[in-house]
Amino acid sequence: DKGNHRHFMAKEIYEQPETISHTLSHYVDMGAEKVAIRETLPFDFADLSRLTMSACGTAYYAGAIAKYWFERFARLPVDIDVASEFRYREPPLEKGGLSLFISQSGETADTLAALRYCAGQGQHVASLVNTLESTIARESGVVFPILCGPEIGVASTKALTAQLTALASLAIAAGRARGVLSAEQEAELVRALTALPSAVSAALGAEAQIIDISKRLSKAKDVLYLGRGAMFPVAMEGALKLKEISYIHAEGYAAGELKHGPIALVDEAMPVIVVAPSDELVDKTLSNMQEVAARGGKIILITDEDGAESVGHGVADIIKIPHVHSFVAPILATIPVQLLAYHTAVFMGTDVDQPRNLAKSVTVE
Ligand code: F6R
């Protein structure tokens, strides 16, 4: 049932304030301002020297964002790779290490093969899944549910924000176990998480403006997405989402890589979507953005009030998201990126929920 929405994807985008709240209620004790992991952990975060993550597509980008969190808030080194590469790379792994697999369906063939390789190497195997009665869940030592309800649209939306909410909670748990986060710091991060559902509702309010921008985006042949830090995987996710449902070619790049090649693509016909909410790195990304503007590139900036103020009047299209703690900003920034892809695809007239050549669950490699 699509409710009042034209597509399941739209319904699932709009469900996110509730689905994020639901995921949070599993992982967070809001009253105590603490993360409370209910699953029994067969390992201790304090003893780990490394976390290895593997996944495909959007689930991989969830892990790529979480890498910044585990490294920063738990000082835990993270290796992450797409499962189709990881499984054949057969990387050396220390016995007793932790491997974490992220999969909405729990049936993705490459992710499952990566999991079996890690189990064979004596790793603790954990998975983050939506479908609890799945092969990946069954073969995991510990299963972290993302609890977002069935996702019908082929393009993943609410599963991504649920994965991120759960991963953010795990990063806090790891930070506490490893003695990196004090109780006050944990409370600050938990408050940032609990502020998310209402911030997501507010971010959805930019829809009318996004429809207007999407109309122009639907005329583009190629689109570039730029981000720095945890916004870099958000940029890659934005490009993936646009490609898969609107069939417009798009690439996500680390903002600092622009001048090492992709800037050669920039001309008046090239929309460049810059994902840059205010944080300690925003000025660097905004200066990369100015380099694009100087070459006539059409900029669409996703930022908050402070970010918008620091660019002044130079940028025609600024999609504003509420100011949130920089910890959770990558979760919030996925919202306008989803809406842009969705509305561009609607203008293109593609089959949004069932894009050509794609399956919801990729059970063959
Ligand atoms: C993109 C998308 C895919 C999946 C990928 C992994 O919108 O939905 O890239 O994220 O196929 O699927 P799961 O999470 O089921 O392993």
Which features does this protein show?
single chain, 365 residues, alpha/beta, 5-stranded parallel β-sheet, 12 strands, binds fructose -6-phosphate
Brief characterization of the structure:
This protein has 365 residues and is of the alpha/beta class.
Largest sheet: 5 strands, parallel
Class from helix and strand fractions: alpha/beta
Name the overall outline: globular
Give the tally of β-strands.
Answer: 12
Unreliable spans are none
Beta content comes to 15-25%
EC number: 2.6.1.16
Subunit structure: Homodimer.
Active site: 360 (for fru-6p isomerization activity)
GO molecular function: carbohydrate derivative binding; glutamine-fructose-6-phosphate transaminase (isomerizing) activity
Topology:
Layout: H1 8-14, H2 16-27, E1 28-29, E2 34-35, E3 51-55, H3 57-74, E4 78-82, H4 83-89, E5 98-103, H5 109-120, E6 124-129, H6 135-138, E7 142-145, H7 158-177, H8 183-194, H9 196-204, H10 207-217, E8 222-227, H11 231-246, E9 249-254, E10 271-275, H12 282-294, E11 298-303, H13 305-311, E12 317-320, H14 329-348
Parallel strand pairs: 3-4, 3-5, 5-6, 6-7, 8-9, 8-10, 10-11, 11-12
Antiparallel strand pairs: 1-2
Helix pairs in contact: 2-7, 2-9, 3-7, 3-11, 4-5, 7-8, 9-14, 10-14, 11-14
The structure holds fructose -6-phosphate (F6R).
Keywords: Aminotransferase, Cytoplasm, Glutamine amidotransferase, Repeat, Transferase
Organism: Devosia lucknowensis
Active site: 360 (for fru-6p isomerization activity)
